[in-house]
Amino acid sequence: MDIKALAEKYDSYIIDRRRFYHTCPELSCEEKETVGLIKADLEAMGITDIHMCQNCYGLWADIKGGKPGKTVALRADIDGLPVKEATGLPFASKNEGKMHACGHDNHISMLLGAAKILNDVKDELCGTVRLVFQPAEEIAKGALAMMEEGVMKGVSAIYGVHVWATFDAPYMGFNAGNRMACCHGFEIQVEGKSAHASAPHLGVDAVMVSCSIMEALQQCVSRMNDPLNPLVLTIGKVTAGSRWNVLAGSALLEGTVRTFTTGTKVEDEIRKVVENTAAAFGAKATLSYTYMTDPVINSDEQLVRIAQDAVSKLYGKEYLVDVPTMMGSEDFSWFGKDGASYIYGFVGSHKKGTEMYSNHHEKYDVDEDILHRGAAVAAQFAADYLAESAQ
Questions:
Q1: Domains of the chain by range and CATH?
Q2: Nearest C-alpha neighbor of 135 from the set 120, 146, 150, 122
């Protein structure tokens, strides 16, 4: 099977689909039209084994090979962001205040391209390829919602990639080890006692207590954490007070943790610091902690090798590069929670010689030459994994 030639054959189709989906982004948990359009695109290819999720706007479809074997999945996320587009592209978003600013339109088109390629060569495949179109990645809810409906039933491995703005096209990276950190969210409710600003001794100032808590929490990073373990602890929102001359009786702190540490160690340390610091000033603080995603870690040596080999055999080793570990997060790793292996990579999207705008920026755009390449590598990975697993 000549996957590279097929990808080039379908280049214009893949670009057309990217531009189309770029015009009509939908936000997380609102992807009803998007998933319906994807279903229509798959049916137009002759792919009919399609499952529409009932509790979210997700979809998966199977391409059954001509030979028996395992099932491998390819995943694309499909939601947009609440960003007002400023690219000036002729195919800019028509949905006011919404944009595919993270590049998920590219993920959709690359997976549709891979679907066309694999459907053409399905008689040569040793098993089944599952196409997974996932909603609500931006709020870290879509993967788990699809898991609850059985998207990974019978799947032994899953592949995912992300286009990345600070990484030059058309290079790709499938490093082993830590890829993206977990995302934990937390709230700290501080309860003090209101008093007139002229008589602070009669109250307990929730603002000052909150400041002490925020300062003390940085000790979790600098003194309580192994310095060899990446850890970010950020409080991004503080709500407190009702009037300039009244001590705040309560305050709410909201923040996030990014790390590769699993388990409850970080939560336990934060809770101890929060509660004891508040108590030292006569206040009470309550921590609410949410585990939104697990870290993405490429730990399966076979999948790393197959993905790297797919890039090398299609485009040469010079297009395979190392991508630094990131403290950003992604809910992709949930697909591996029931035992399936996974591989996650990055596709450089920045066109050399042009100004660089990061993912989530209102002017984010991609070098469209990456699209057929991304489709080809996904298809090559799936075919090679199934062939190797059947031996």
A1: 3-180+294-390 (3.40.630.10), 183-293 (3.30.70.360)
A2: 146
Residue 285 structure tokens? 């603080």
Q: How far apart are CA 383 and CA 119, in angstroms?
A: 11
Task: Report the relative pairing of strands 296-298 and 177-180 from DSSP bridges.
Answer: antiparallel
Calpha distance 211→339 (Å, rounded): 43
Residue 15: both structure tokens together:
């670009």
Angle (CA) 298-108-370 rounded to 5° is: 75
Q: Which residue is listed with tokens 């991508």?
A: 323
* Distance, CA of 51 to CA of 132 (rounded, Å): 10
* Neighbour tally for 329: CB within 10 Å: 20
CA max distance for the chain: 82
Cα distance from N-terminal residue to C-terminal residue, the chain: 18
Would you give per-residue pLDDT tens digits along the chain (391 residues)?
799 999 999 999 999 999 999 999 999 999 999 999 999 999 999 999 999 999 999 999 999 999 999 999 999 999 999 999 999 999 999 999 999 999 999 999 999 999 999 999 999 999 999 999 999 999 999 999 999 999 999 999 999 999 999 999 999 999 999 999 999 999 999 999 999 999 999 999 999 999 999 999 999 999 999 999 999 999 999 999 999 999 999 999 999 999 999 899 999 999 999 999 999 999 999 999 999 999 999 999 999 999 999 999 999 999 999 999 999 999 999 999 999 999 999 999 999 999 999 999 999 999 999 999 999 999 999 999 999 999 8
Strands lying side by side in the sheet with 172-173: 50-52, 59-64, 126-134, 67-77, 155-168, 341-350, 172-173
